[in-house]
Amino acid sequence: MNPPNRPGSSLSRTGPFSRQLDAALPAETEALRHEAVRAWASLVRTYGLINRRLTSDMRDIGLSMAQMDVLVTLHYHPGLSQTELAERLYVTKGNVTGLVKRMLEGAWLKRVESREDGRTKLLYLTEAGHAKAQEAVKVHERLISVTTSDLTTDQLVDLRDTLRVLRTPVIEG
Predict the structure, then answer these.
(1) Residues 125, 108: contact at Cβ < 8 Å?
(2) Residue 111 dihedral angles phi and psi, to the nearest 5°
(3) Which helix (H) or strand (E) holds 121?
(4) For the segment 118-171, what is each residue's pLDDT rounded down to a tens digit?
(5) With 0-12 CB in 10 A as exposed, 13-18 as middle and 19+ as buried, what is 136?
(6) In the chain, helix, strand, coil percent, each to 5?
(7) pTM for this structure?
(8) Angle of helix 82-89 versus helix 93-105 axis, rounded to 10
């Protein structure tokens, strides 16, 4: 297989992020590219395994991952509009509309008219929603504890910093 952006490559990239990649490629050595691909594959596999486990754990307490995301987000950031909630979850407002409607019907959420703008409705957890969010947080924290138990504080700080470095060009690009 040909490396990306070389003659005969089957991978095509467009947009500002691809220009950053193109600029970085000529200076990279073959060994560095190889290690980058291996590290990326490891990150993707690890994320997949953690996500699969978290999905199962949430299912055990009667939540989908989407429901957990909404509950935990509103637990920590009460009073968001649906648009703000969608932005925090990195999805479109359309993606949360049906979910919020079902969670309102399930008595986990309530809508309250905004004091600043009566046309805007803000989302809050009900008492049942708070209880479910706290249950989800405990399950999530237990998985985090199990997953990171063999890491030192320095390794956790390095991991966080490394992930921040990986996120930056994606956010800015």
Answers:
(1) yes
(2) -105, 135
(3) strand 121-125
(4) 889 999 999 999 999 999 999 999 999 999 999 999 999 999 999 999 988 888
(5) buried
(6) 70, 5, 25
(7) 0.75
(8) 110
